[in-house]
């Protein structure tokens, strides 16, 4: 293989990829072209089924048993990859082209030490000795900022955390100095603050090693932070490509424009400028329309022009170089640099207090069976899942509980729902202390008035029963109706409420899409006319446009019924959009609580500050202060005596943070911060997220 | 890890005790029945009563049990009713014979099934996989007594290569072992091969194997260094548990070929109501079974780094 | 998305609907030829068992002319009409074909009964252990481990030798020996399924534990359980065959394939037909169930 170092690192022309199933050929990627130069970073963004991961696999020439490259060329440094023999491909992989995967733990062999897995890369490709490989691996582990590289080399994958595993995967990919790095959603499986660290690492590494990158994600905000250029894909085709600045500020394709309208940017507001979901549904791969794939869902669809024949990419003149779009009407459309918004909606009037949480505590007993524990007599340990929780929620209000894994938010939800009872403190709902009443002892009315929407749409419904049967059962159980005919009526009403066709009554979950299943989950939660609904990450598993639709649905229903919404999430963008008030939790305790505005402005709790900095925002003119957390999440069984955040805090003031629990300081009536740092000092911090006013924006006409 | 081993052994002992209690209850609770079986159905009530007194059968149940257990622990199982000699004299040589049969069966079966299973699982859905899978299913569908018949028909009656029985009357003869071993291997290899195949096929679809391939490692290294290490954990456990199966399977084979083994002994003892022999054989069988299970458990924990280092 | 305006009819959970679904799922087998062959074999033997009185030319226990080769003709006597010994007779003069046909009935009554009984016990135990966890799980798992640690045949021999052989004893013994294995499988499935959100949704509704186990969890475990059931039927048939072979099976004179094979194997050198046909019979039936199980597994994976 002779590489041409002057050629672009990657040059893909008119690539067509298909899968071959029993049902015939299913085109996965159509007419894909891309040129990547040395040191450049290109983002591939799109929703599920758009084909972005398939492109990565095609570059690696690893499409699996039933996928193949139908036509087109992929040239790596001038060498046509489609023509290479398997042995030549093998030499390329890991040495010239490396890949980083979505789930780092699954990508590592659980039975081999990390050192072994890392060393084999340069040993295989360059023939160096074991000692040399070891030294190089240690050095690269330092480059990816892993403390104590020697320990990591000797460890097994399960002995390190998720973020550390991903750093090892990145290090492993860099060991033989590849020219091209393929990153397939590398941070999706990680916590927000960990994600920020990895994202920054990826951006820095590219500069340090001079690698070119293809970064695949569904999150436009992440692409903005990492990439130079971006390709937007829809249903197998690239619909728009351009530099970050050009595409983010002047999107030309209706789909791109629509996508931005679905993301809760800082400029969105649930009443004044709500999200605008894209109507319709993604076409199935074998049911794509002629002409523009996006046509049926496009507000600017022109019959006869948009659906007559295949559309190619055309260059957008008068803009930054290489901004191209696949649309026949692009020159007629002017989005005026404004993000799409839905119609204005009336704000909900907030009513009386519905929920009061006073000093709630939930401890679990865990029996530690190690020898050390038995000897010291401390074999029963306490997991302090929730500690000293204080806040309240009023009628019609949306209160968000924000935190990462292990913060105790799911435990709190369980106590509210009655799956657990509180160890101490009170949870007063509509006057009764339900914290002490397990669900089996609650009245049907109590149960019906407090329900939950779950996270995972594929698991939220029982696959073996019909939709109508499942919702009907809920109605009956809550005592809303008991007559068969009335129950059926009510089920149909609920289907109307969540804007699904009535004939879904007889369908089974298998026949529904993720978004539709989640809507049924919402219908089920509202079956008993609840006064309060807990939504546990209801949209984090959904595509952006589907999530927008479900979010809007939830707020519409809430508006109509004046329901209180307790929204649990780790995604601060959605939280900022939806919530009236926010509670920030860390390791079982409340770090800060207040209204949305109060949380997003100084004074900040240091953890809030870090969380805000970690949120990817898809607005190129918003600036963020960069805060990266070092240190490890302490184990729940062994929390620090003092402030739980002390092991990672960027503003730690001294040993007082380790030893003493901080007192709660009230920055204003309702805004509480639990920190040792005096309020005055906290007030002096710069805002983390700076959103320019409309007048100050360079490229927006109001 | 040590705690785990200690716990497993502890459980093993508890199992043995519980089983021994149940056995004892089942067989010796009816003291008159015991006496009748020992002395024969035609013995008189008086002679039975004397015998019961002499042998401590009128003592409380718990005492009798503890005494029996104590004796068993040192290998004294009493005298065989049928052979009129200490149980051990008959049982141990027979156990040795079965051990020989088991050894050779495993020596052939394990390499055969592991190899076929790995080859089949490596290329799931391929022709080779199909052939191995279906062969495995077919051989597991023929019960041992039926395959013994088929094999005898071919090798004893038609080809006349092998003898039809394996009583070893003329001293040890390997030729007489061949048919019993064939029957056992034929039946069991299919099961182990399919377990191995399933484990291997599952490993081949994991993401870490994809990582290994996309790192540019040679295919041989991917299979041997990355895949097998994980794929062979489950079959290892399965193989250890095959000792348990062997103790059952060997009964039919020994009966069919008149091989003087442990399984045939247990069967004869049961049919002849030779109580003490039954108890002894059952205890030994359970001991071997539980022992191999314990070793399998410990081995599995050892081989799986996720559990070993947690 | 157009909205349907007609009110749909509520699907009546009738037996008919369930039967239609069962038949449709067998049609899925068309995709797996292995499963098809298995299904054909199984249905063949079920048909033989059901039609035994019509198909068998002679009374299986009637001793007519000993040691006839296949195809020999029976001229008839005072009580028994003439006919052909299509598969020959055994050393006591009984028609092999009739004995094979009636033997299928014996097997196909006792095996499903024993399996069903084992499944009922195993499912209940597995559900309770997997869903409730805690001391119940510990206890049930320990008991299961103890029973499973016994070599299976040793267990059967001891039980039957002590209590005596009869249809009921055999069913109880098989239930006792198989339930722990089934319990383990069900428990594993339940441990996985109980973490699903729809189970949490049912719990937050205040549903009772048994309702959740039987209505929410169990139907979703049916895939692996059906495959296991077919396999286990095969094992149980082998067990019944082995017990018959060893003389511990159902008491005579009911024709039982295992017993037939044992009785006739000493004649095998001279009269192989006596022993070979029952061997083919039992092997083909077990093969049928094993192939069917494999086919079902393939199909369920593709879902």
User: Could you state the order of secondary-structure elements of chain B as H and E?
Assistant: HHHHHHHHHHHHHH
Biggest β-sheet: strands ordered side by side in the sheet of chain A: 6-7-8-3-9-10-12-11
Shape of chain B: flat
Protein structure class of chain B: mainly alpha
Query: What's the total number of strands of chain A?
Result: 26
Distinct helical segment count of chain A: 23
Question: Distance N terminus to C terminus of chain A?
Answer: 56 Å
β-strand percent of chain A reads 15-25%
Strand content of chain B: under 5%
Largest contact between protein chains?
A: B-C, 47 and 42 residues
Alpha plus pi helix count of chain B: 14
Q: What's the Cα radius of gyration of chain A?
A: 27 Å
SSE topology:
The complex is a heterotrimer of chains A (702), B (310) and C (303).
Chain A: E1 10-21, E2 24-36, E3 41-46, H1 52-59, E4 67-76, E5 79-80, H2 86-92, E6 97-100, H3 104-107, H4 114-126, H5 130-143, H6 149-154, H7 162-174, E7 180-184, H8 192-209, E8 212-217, H9 220-226, E9 229-234, E10 237-243, H10 244-249, H11 254-262, E11 314-315, E12 324-325, E13 353-367, H12 371-376, E14 380-394, E15 398-402, H13 409-417, E16 424-429, E17 432-433, H14 444-448, E18 450-453, H15 467-477, H16 484-497, H17 514-525, E19 532-536, H18 544-561, E20 564-569, H19 572-578, E21 581-586, E22 589-595, H20 596-600, H21 606-614, E23 623-624, H22 655-659, E24 664-668, E25 671-674, H23 679-683, E26 689-690
Parallel strand pairs in A: 3-8, 3-9, 6-7, 7-8, 15-20, 15-21, 18-19, 19-20
Antiparallel strand pairs in A: 1-2, 1-4, 4-5, 9-10, 10-12, 11-12, 13-14, 13-16, 16-17, 21-22, 22-25, 23-26, 24-25
Helix pairs in contact in A: 4-5, 4-7, 5-7, 7-8, 8-21, 15-16, 17-18
Chain B: H1 2-28, H2 31-39, H3 45-54, H4 61-73, H5 87-122, H6 127-141, H7 144-158, H8 174-204, H9 207-214, H10 219-231, H11 233-257, H12 262-271, H13 275-303, H14 305-308
Chain C: H1 15-27, H2 33-50, H3 52-55, E1 72-74, E2 83-85, H4 96-132, H5 134-148, H6 152-163, H7 167-193, H8 197-204, H9 209-217, H10 222-246, H11 257-264, H12 272-302
